[in-house]
Design goal:
By secondary structure, this protein is an alpha/beta fold. It has three domains: about 5-40; about 45-110, Ubiquitin-like (UB roll); about 115-260, 3-Layer(aba) Sandwich (Rossmann fold). The chain has helices at about 10-40, 60-65, 80-85, 155-170, 205-225, and strands at about 45-50, 90-100, 105-110, 115-120, 125-130, 135, 150, 175-180, 190, 195-200, 235, 245-250, 255-260. The strands form two sheets. It has a ten-stranded mixed beta sheet with strand order 6-5-4-7-8-9-10-11-12-13, with helices on one face. The protein is elongated, with a radius of gyration of 33 Å. The protein starts with 8 loop residues before the first helix and ends with a strand.
């Protein structure tokens, strides 16, 4: 039977230290080799492929504008910085940037889809389909006519949601909704394509929609009582608990009509 040889503790520590140092040197060598490899000219960014929505942006122009702001190689380029550069371009809402080995970048773009103008005449901006405000050349808007929405900062999505709920209601009577405003106090007001102004008051989407439905369901009957069409509406105030006030063009009085339950 072979006798058990006990290795002194200091020898064990020396062996462990030697192994650890060897691993450190190997790791440092690997890092240095990787850095040297990453700096090789073969991995310089040679091209950027742009895909996705580019209706308002030319892919060649985008690449030309972003390329001078690139730094690093395929391995070291800052993708977040490249993404920010593309998203700074007009009409670009979102950019997804990926590496394409060995020396290319691939960028997929999502553009803003303008659904309304936002703000006053003095400072008009655009609102996209997500209810986000963005700045771009309004002359590039493809739609012939967009509604104008306005409200406090940070509530653009809420205003867009209200517009989407109300527009079909007025459209049923061929009264296109041209403008929707939300005041700082939370009161809603619409202006129709005919120029008529309708005060809707405060409330949630469901409350405002219910109030508007009651008003529109009796508007034709009320207008015909005075020999007018619904397009003769000049103004209405729906903030009354038991009904609404209405003014028709060519009618000197402003009768109050009790809404139907």
């Amino acid at each position: 039977m072979n006798p058990v040889v006990h290795v002194p503790v200091d020898v064990k520590l020396m062996n462990l230290t030697a192994v650890a140092l060897a691993l450190v040197f190997v790791l440092l060598g690997a890092v240095a080799a990787a850095r040297a490899l990453a700096r090789l000219s073969a991995f310089d960014i040679r091209a950027i492929t742009v895909t996705g929505q580019v209706a308002h942006n030319n892919a060649l122009t985008l690449r030309a504008n972003v390329a001078p702001r690139l730094s690093g190689t395929f391995f070291s380029v800052d993708l977040a910085r490249v993404r920010a550069a593309f998203e700074a371009a007009p009409w670009v809402r979102r950019a997804v940037v990926r590496r394409d080995f060995p020396n290319r970048l691939r960028v997929d773009l999502q553009e803003h889809q303008a659904v309304a103008y936002w703000g006053t005449d003095a400072e008009v901006r655009l609102l996209n389909s997500f209810g986000e405000v963005f700045e771009a050349n309004v002359g590039e808007v493809e739609q012939d006519a967009l509604p104008r929405l306005f409200g406090p900062d940070g509530q653009s999505a809420e205003v867009l949601a209200m517009y989407r709920a109300l527009d079909p209601l007025f459209d049923q009577l061929e009264l296109p909704l041209d403008q929707l405003d939300l005041s700082g106090g939370g009161s809603w007001r619409v202006r129709l394509d005919t120029g008529a102004a309708v005060e809707l008051g405060r409330g949630s989407v469901d409350e405002i929609v219910a109030r508007t439905r009651r008003f529109l369901s009796t508007l034709t009957q009320v207008a015909s009582r005075y020999g007018r069409h619904v397009q003769s509406l000049e103004s209405a105030d729906l903030r009354h608990e038991s009904g609404y006030a209405i003014r028709l063009r060519g009618v000197s009085t402003a009768p109050r009509v009790v809404s139907k339950k």
